[in-house]
Every structure is written in C-alpha cells, then in structure tokens.
Amino acid sequence: MEKPSKNNNSFLKKRILSFKYAFTGIFVSVKSQCNLKIHIIAAIIAIILGFILKISNQEWLIISIVIGGVITAEMFNTTIEAIVDIISPEYSENAKKAKDISAGAVLILAIVAVVVGIIIFVPKIILVINQ
Question: pTM score, two decimals?
C-alpha cells in the first residue's frame, strides 16, 4: 500500500478546515443574529408539527427546502450587511439600499415559507380538530 503523499494530507487538512470554518460561520450567525434565531425556532416548530401531523415525503421535501432557503437567505443578508458596513462605514444611501434590498429578499422568502406552512399544515390541523 502506498503511503499518502504530503499533497494528499494537505488537501485533506484544507477540506477539514473548510468544514470547520463553515460550522464556525453557522455558530457565529446563530449566536449574533436575532432574526436567525427566530427563523430557527420557526423551523423547529415546523419540524415538530411535521412529525405530529405525519406529513408526506413530498411535504417534508418542500418544508426542508423552505427552511434551508430562509436560513441561508438570512445568513447571506448578514454577510451583505457586514460587507456593506466594511465598505461604507459612514451613512450612504446606496449602502442603505443594498441592506434594505437584502433584508427584503429574506422577508419575501420568509413570507413564502409561511404560505407553504399554511398550505401544508392547516388542512391537517383542521382534520385533527374535526375528529
């Protein structure tokens, strides 16, 4: 058996570090962003409801995509805001515009997530109530 080369070890170390940095980014985002905490609480509620109401595989797929999308959008929004603050530390109409548009994108996705939740969960909740 051939001994791994230094380049292979370096490649593996870089991959492991990239995951470490990614998990650090998630941790920092959750710790520092109030809106992200709210999205995560909503996601946990949706997951619990999904188990209680026994949603289908297709519904799980949709809920998972929406949850991932909202959390990712919030993290991108945080990144955009941080970059704008670095580039434009003083007040700027363009900086405000970039931040507002980024926040608006998260809001649109969050509204879509609520609509998806209503479409998937409300009929099932009504069935449970009517039993």
Answer: 0.85
Number of separate domains in the chain: 2
Phi, psi of 54 (to 5 degrees): 50, 60
Q: What is the dihedral of CA 79, 80, 86, 88, to 10 degrees?
A: -170
pLDDT for the residue numbered 8: 73
Same domain, 47 and 26: no
Range of the domain at 92: 34-130
Residues 14 and 47 in one domain: no
Distance CA 89, CA 74 (A): 21
Residues 13 and 42 in one domain: no
CATH code: domain of residue 93: 1.10.287.3610
Nearest partner of 127 among 21, 55, 57, judged by Cα: 55
Question: For 1-10, what is each residue's pLDDT tens digit?
Answer: 555 555 678 8
